[in-house]
């Protein structure tokens, strides 16, 4: 363990880190962050690009980290692998998102070709088990869109009225209600009308000061853009680019949460990638601030 980390082994498979700069972790490549705040803890779930010539975005497992103060982090044992989903025959561990409901933790994961699945656990650090034995959503649910990675990048938002929603997609941003049990879709699958601006992937919905914010990756190489709405189903008004192209990474993928009285923008870049492949990504964190009118101040990537 090197780079900016001072690591100490807690048990056979758990490590404590004190990162002092971005990227957050330098002992592993991490991508597609999704944060969950629970009480005094921030849980960070991520994808895992692996060392040694990963071909494309073909990852094998996901990772979980936790912190109480954004300074000292614990890495927990590997909580979920693509092989935990028997139906995911393409074997690609794409982006995911963990949500809590009635004391259980639901990890929505995406694959290339095989769609979106959901695993469930009693604790945020897992272990997680496939909840359905089949995908929750497939390319057929995306109006038979043709490319294999249409049905990816799930993002969950539980509204103040307790209604859970799922957003996802590549090229088109789809959304639907989830049933109370979190493992079934309720009602119709719909599309967000982007009205002239380009959605690539990586939707994330959050709410602040009564407004809905839909952030997402746009273009390729990707920047993170955002739009705002009064209603979760829109119409969404485009508000501009929030984060520029992430260094040596063609993709960017953001997670936005409030924690200990601050807002955080968590994303990935190619900050410690050395082979020029764009498949060795690293999670970074910046503080995020709003303007008085509710718009968000542009996020400047730092190495701090
Ligand atoms: O990591 C694989 C894919 O790359 C994700 O699903 C996308 O959001 C992009 O980051």
UniProtKB/TrEMBL annotation:
GO biological process: xylan catabolic process
Alphabetized Gene3D superfamilies for the sequence: Glycosyl hydrolase domain, family 43 (2.115.10.20)
Coiled-coil residue spans: none
Residues under site feature: Important for catalytic activity, responsible for pKa modulation of the active site Glu and correct orientation of both the proton donor and substrate: 153
Source taxon at top rank: Bacteria
Entry keyword set: Carbohydrate metabolism, Glycosidase, Hydrolase, Polysaccharide degradation, Xylan degradation
One Gene Ontology term of the molecular function aspect: hydrolase activity, hydrolyzing O-glycosyl compounds
InterPro entries: Glyco_hydro_43, Glyco_hydro_beta-prop_sf, Glycosyl_Hydrlase_43_Enz
Record carries keyword Hydrolase: yes
Active site annotation, chain numbering: 32 (proton acceptor), 201 (proton donor)
UniProt family annotation: Belongs to the glycosyl hydrolase 43 family.
Protein name per UniProt: Endo-1,4-beta-xylanase D
Taxonomic source organism: Zunongwangia profunda (strain DSM 18752 / CCTCC AB 206139 / SM-A87) (Wangia profunda)
């Amino acid at each position: 363990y090197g780079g900016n980390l001072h690591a100490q082994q807690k048990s056979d498979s758990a490590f404590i880190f004190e990162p002092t700069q971005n990227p957050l972790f330098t002992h592993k490549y991490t991508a597609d962050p999704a944060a969950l705040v629970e009480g005094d803890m921030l849980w960070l779930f991520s994808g895992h690009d692996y060392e040694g010539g990963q071909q494309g975005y073909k990852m094998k497992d996901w990772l979980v980290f936790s912190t109480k103060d954004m300074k000292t982090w614990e890495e927990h044992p590997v909580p979920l692998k693509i092989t935990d989903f028997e139906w995911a025959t393409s074997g690609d561990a794409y982006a995911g998102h963990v949500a809590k409901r009635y004391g259980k933790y639901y990890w929505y994961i995406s694959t290339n070709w095989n769609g979106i699945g959901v695993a469930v656990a009693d604790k945020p650090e897992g272990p997680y088990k496939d909840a359905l034995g089949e995908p929750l959503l497939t390319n057929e649910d995306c109006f038979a869109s043709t490319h294999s990675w249409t049905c990816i990048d799930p993002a969950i938002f539980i509204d103040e009225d307790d209604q859970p929603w799922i957003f996802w997609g590549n090229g088109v941003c789809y959304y639907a209600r989830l049933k109370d049990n979190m493992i079934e879709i309720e009602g119709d699958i719909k599309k967000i009308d982007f009205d002239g601006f380009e959605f690539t992937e990586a939707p994330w919905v959050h709410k602040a000061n009564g407004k809905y914010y839909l952030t997402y990756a746009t273009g390729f190489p990707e920047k993170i853009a955002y739009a705002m709405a009064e209603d979760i189903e829109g119409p969404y008004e485009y508000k501009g680019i929030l984060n520029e192209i992430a260094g040596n990474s063609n993709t960017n993928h953001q997670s936005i949460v409030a924690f200990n009285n601050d807002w955080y923008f968590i994303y990935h870049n190619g900050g410690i990638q050395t082979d020029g492949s764009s498949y060795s990504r690293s999670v970074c964190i910046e503080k995020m601030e709003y303007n008085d009118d509710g718009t968000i101040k542009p996020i400047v990537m730092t190495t701090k």
